[in-house]
């Protein structure tokens, strides 16, 4: 699969040191990432269903508070006695917990993985390319690298990419199913963005923490994933990319026998709203 990665800075570090920066979801430019709509569905049969399937950790927590072993049935009866108004209180409590999970979804996910975002060049429209260059390459002064996943190691997390969906509304998740940990819909929130972002045609991978390399820099701690230079097949330089810097990088890569990498310079079309590319020899 061919992937594009837009870079506002750190082009030389990415290519020469063969590594890509992985991001925390809380650092994304979209505050709606990973969020969902919790359904206020804890009532009637759903409430009975929750009590019949009350999570084991809740039972254990209640038993610890009671300081004695109790059966699930005894726990349920204890809850009802402790909260005379439980039919109203329990639904409100569970709904509040579900909404809080949605608010903290980004930071909670960071305990397990990071994210690296790419774009699908086959699906991105030429007009939308202008937006991508403008939004992700520091006003066209950065670059774009083209990656061919066929040249990655078999165990590389960059091979496991997921395509982003662009639904018209937030993913809806049952509060009861969430409380019982019986939903897979949380995965959908990780690959869903508002339809306004559809121009990006994004795909992303989710490297686990143990698959990243931590590095301390003057800018703070960053986390990286290996990117073998053999997988980098082309570098496109932004319209405002410094020409001396460009030529130095091209010369170095050619001297290092990386002849598999092609180079192009982006330029403004003189007749239409379109970015054109000139081969750099």
Account of the protein in words:
By secondary structure, the chain is of the alpha+beta class. The chain has helices at 11-16, 44-52, 56-66, 72-82, 86-103, 105-109, 126-136, 175-179, 185-190, 243-255, and strands at residues 2-7, 19-22, 36-39, 116-119, 143-148, 161-163, 171-174, 202-205, 213-217, 220-226, 232-237, 262-268, 275-279. The strands form 4 sheets. It has a 5-stranded mixed sheet. Strands 2-10-9 form a 3-stranded antiparallel sheet. The longest helix has 18 residues, at 86-103. The protein is elongated. The model has no long low-confidence stretch (mean pLDDT 89).
- Tell me, briefly, the overall form: elongated
Identify the strand order in the major beta sheet: 1-5-11-12-13
| Largest sheet composition | 5 strands, mixed
Please report the distance between the alpha carbons of the first and last residues. 26 Å
Helix content: 25-40%
Structural class, from helix and strand content? alpha+beta
- State the order of secondary-structure elements, H for helix, E for strand: EHEEHHHHHEHEEEHHEEEEHEE
Average pLDDT over all residues: 89
Rg estimate, integer Å: 25 Å
Low-confidence stretches: none
The helix tally amounts to 10
User: Strand tally, please?
Assistant: 13
What portion of the residues fall into strands of 2 or more residues?
15-25%
């Amino acid at each position: 699969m061919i992937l594009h990665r837009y870079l506002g800075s750190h082009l030389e570090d990415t290519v020469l040191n063969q590594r890509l920066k992985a991001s925390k979801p809380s650092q994304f430019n979209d505050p709606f990432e990973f969020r969902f709509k919790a359904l206020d569905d804890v009532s009637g049969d759903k409430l009975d269903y929750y009590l019949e399937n009350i999570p084991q950790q809740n039972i254990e927590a209640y038993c610890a508070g009671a300081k004695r072993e109790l059966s699930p049935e005894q726990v349920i009866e204890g809850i009802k006695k402790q909260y005379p108004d439980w039919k109203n209180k329990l639904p409100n409590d569970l709904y509040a917990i579900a909404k809080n999970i949605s608010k903290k979804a980004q930071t909670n996910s960071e305990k397990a993985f990071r994210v690296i975002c790419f774009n699908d060049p086959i699906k991105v429209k030429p007009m939308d390319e202008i937006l991508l260059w403008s939004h992700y390459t520091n006003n066209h002064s950065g670059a774009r690298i083209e990656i061919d996943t066929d040249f990655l190691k078999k165990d590389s997390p960059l091979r496991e990419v997921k395509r982003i969906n662009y639904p018209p509304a937030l993913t809806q998740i049952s509060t009861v199913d969430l409380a019982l940990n019986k939903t897979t819909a949380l995965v959908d929130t990780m690959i869903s963005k508002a339809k306004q972002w559809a121009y990006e045609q994004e795909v992303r991978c989710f490297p686990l923490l143990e698959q990243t390399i931590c590095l301390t820099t003057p800018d703070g701690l960053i986390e990286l994933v290996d990117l073998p230079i053999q997988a980098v097949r082309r570098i496109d330089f932004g319209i405002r990319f410094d020409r001396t810097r460009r030529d130095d990088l091209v010369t170095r890569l050619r001297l290092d026998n990386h002849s598999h990498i092609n180079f192009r310079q982006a330029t403004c079309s003189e007749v239409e709203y379109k970015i054109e590319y000139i081969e750099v020899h």
